[in-house]
TrEMBL record:
Domain HTH luxR-type per the UniProt entry, residue ranges: 131-196
Species this chain originates from: Saccharicrinis carchari
Entries under InterPro entries matching the protein: Sig_transdc_resp-reg_C-effctor, Tscrpt_reg_LuxR_C, WH-like_DNA-bd_sf
Keyword Transcription: yes
The keyword Transferase belongs to this UniProt entry's keyword annotation: no
Protein name stated in the entry: DNA-binding response regulator, NarL/FixJ family, contains REC and HTH domains
Length: 206
């Protein structure tokens, strides 16, 4: 499988996993947390090594355990050496947890943990747009509006639910965006989940 970049993107990210659904899921999470990537993806270990040789400036490398040869930690170390300035994440079972050269995410983590770990992986602490203490920036009414937005309600539905006008809802949403620095509904949804404002299953069922 040839490794090709998608066009017109920003952060250089390589994804390697045998299963298409794994790669699709990773790309979806990257989109949800607001990262705009220049993506390289493959389902083969040899291809990802060739990709890194040709693109040593890749900034983030996400590897599923299923593509690694038997000497998994040694293989990860080799990938890290090919990508010295990049960050490496491995998704796998508990046997990979103590690998020193990569961040680890368990392949059975729940939705909230997955989102948190991807946030930690992609954003430095002072640049992370989703931090628990940010909830103190919002008024009680803004938290109510944010929660409703994250659950998929329209401005009209939020207005009816909270007994306020649609214009007031729009004003609250503008204030929320300015305070949190999060412009997309997907980003606000991630924020709400991580800060325990909504249950992920509630969003899923919408």
């Amino acid at each position: 499988m040839q490794v090709e970049p998608n066009e017109a993107k920003k952060i250089k990210i390589a994804i390697a996993a045998k299963q298409f659904l794994y790669r699709l899921g990773i790309k979806t999470i990257i989109s949800v947390i607001g990262v705009e990537p220049e993506l390289y993806e493959t389902n083969d270990y040899d291809n990802i090594t060739q990709c890194l040789k040709h693109h040593p400036d890749i900034e983030y490398l996400i590897i599923n355990q299923d593509i690694l040869p038997l000497a998994k930690e040694k293989s990860l170390q080799s990938l890290k050496e090919l990508c010295p300035c990049g960050k490496l994440m491995v998704i796998g079972d508990a046997s990979m947890k103590h690998c020193s050269c990569a961040s680890f995410m368990h392949n059975i983590d729940n939705q909230k943990d997955v989102l948190e770990k991807f946030q930690e992986f992609f954003f430095e602490p002072d640049k992370n747009p989703i931090e628990h203490e940010n909830t103190t920036l919002l008024s009680d009414r803004e938290i109510e509006v944010l929660t409703a937005v994250a659950m998929g309600y329209s401005n009209k539905e939020i207005a009816e639910k909270l007994f306020i006008s649609s214009n007031t809802v729009i004003t609250h949403r503008k204030n929320i965006t300015e305070k949190l620095g999060i412009k997309t509904i997907a980003g606000l949804t991630v924020y709400a989940i991580i800060n325990n404002l909504i249950d992920p299953e509630t969003v899923k069922s919408k």
